């Protein structure tokens, strides 16, 4: 059970959550979330989740692998954040967490009562919509907030006209 969202009437602001990862389509989700946030007077949160299970197998090198994964996450997050700052003029809130992506999304939504919409982007690959969209769509229970899925084929102009 997710806690009640903190709306504008209670002094909150609507936050759009986008997950940043290694997929090419995550940039579309970030762009849409940032533009919707700006258009509605809200904010945008970018979350990068490092899969901590990868570090459990290698006791001696786990710390090195974790540090490398953190560096990669910060680099990817900086690239996306810089682009959003430049193109949209919005300063995203950024978080890097370790765990399973869907579980970390749920935990963040529970912790931050201003997060009102999760924005994901579907891949245009023949294999399917992508691992995150598939995981969220296939999760046993409904997500506690609305989920917007953005097609990866939308251009910046398309996204701008939708927002």
Model description:
The chain has 163 residues and is an alpha/beta fold. The chain is built from 5 helices and 5 strands, in the order βαβαβαβαβα. It has a 5-stranded parallel beta sheet, with helices on both faces. The radius of gyration is 16 Å and the shape is globular. The model has no long low-confidence stretch (mean pLDDT 86).
Task: List the SSEs and their pairings.
Blueprint: E1 15-19, H1 26-40, E2 43-50, H2 62-87, E3 93-98, H3 101-111, E4 115-122, H4 131-137, E5 147-151, H5 156-162
Key words describing this protein structure:
163 residues; alpha/beta; 5-stranded parallel beta sheet; 5 strands; 20% strand; globular
In brief:
By secondary structure, the chain is an alpha/beta fold.
Shape: globular
> What Rg do the Cα atoms give?
16 Å
Mean pLDDT: 86
Structural class assignment: alpha/beta
Distance between the termini: 30 Å
Spans of at least 5 consecutive residues with low confidence: none
Largest sheet: 5 strands, parallel
Strand line-up of the largest beta sheet: 3-2-1-4-5
Question: Element order, helices and strands?
Answer: EHEHEHEHEH
Helix content: 40-55%
Number of helices: 5
How many β-strands, per DSSP?
5
* Proportion of beta-strand residues: 15-25%
């Amino acid at each position: 059970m997710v806690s009640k969202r903190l709306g504008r009437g209670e002094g909150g602001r609507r936050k759009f959550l986008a997950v940043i990862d290694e997929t090419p389509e995550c940039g579309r989700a970030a762009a849409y979330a940032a533009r919707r946030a700006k258009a509605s007077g809200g904010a945008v949160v970018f979350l990068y989740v490092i899969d901590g299970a990868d570090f459990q197998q290698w006791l001696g090198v786990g710390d090195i692998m974790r540090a490398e994964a953190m560096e990669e996450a910060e680099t990817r997050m900086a690239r996306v954040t810089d682009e959003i700052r430049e193109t949209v003029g919005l300063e995203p809130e950024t978080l890097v967490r370790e765990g399973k992506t869907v579980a970390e999304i749920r935990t963040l939504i529970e912790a931050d009562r201003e997060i009102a919409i999760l924005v994901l982007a579907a891949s245009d690959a023949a294999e399917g919509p992508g691992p995150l969209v598939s995981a969220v769509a296939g999760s046993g229970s409904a997500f506690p907030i609305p989920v917007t899925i953005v097609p990866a084929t939308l251009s910046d102009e398309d996204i701008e006209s939708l927002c």
